[in-house]
Amino acid sequence: MDHLQNICNAIEKAEREAAELILHAHGILAETKSGRRDVVTEYDRRVQALLMQRLGGAVPGAHYFCEELDERDRLDAEQLFIIDPIDGTMNFVHGFHHSCISVAYAERGEVLIGVIYNPYMDELFSAIKGGGAYLNGRPIHVTDEGLAGSVVCYGTAPYNPELTDETFETARKLYAASLDLRREGSAALDLCTVAAGRAGLYFELKVSLWDYAAGDLIVREAGGVCSRIDGSPFPTDGSRTGIAAGSPRAMAEFLALMKA
Q: Please, what are the domains in the chain?
């Protein structure tokens, strides 16, 4: 556990340093990738480069699976960092101040550390497998409520317009079953919102591994449940997938609602 704590400390330090680039960003110009809703900035690349440099110093020979890399290493590498340098880039571009840095650390395909930092709120969420989940060093836990006593976060899978109707049909069902809905534009932070007990459930019909790798562990270590939309395990090849996460009660109710 000591070596994992050391790596976790290195991730936290690197994320806080990289966050200064986000907080002091100016003249932000967005470039499109796969479509008009899929954007990247020079700051995504600068944050990623800084993280890789610092984490490479902490774990020499480590491999990387990062959003802004053209070539990504194997997920079953001996030591692997899964990095989303700015999750919520559209928010970042438009000044919504709801974005984060997400880093997961895995060994031979198993995620052992997750760290997500929201620099705008100075909130650092972290988890080491088997050690619980924390917000700024204090333990966090998912809510005990089901859907009726919770708000629900969701994502719109904006890169996949073929999923729009299904997304909003699902959201409509959950609106009726819950207190209210929230759409905030960062999958990683939505997972942290669930882990901290602020929301009972989060769902999105298509996300990437770097969006959820760290948050998945944080939710689980906070006593929550995280899976694909139908309750099955996540794919092991890093392919994009749907996701649902929540308190055990809320997840059970969600899965029953999806089958109804």
A: 2-139 (3.30.540.10), 147-259 (3.40.190.80)
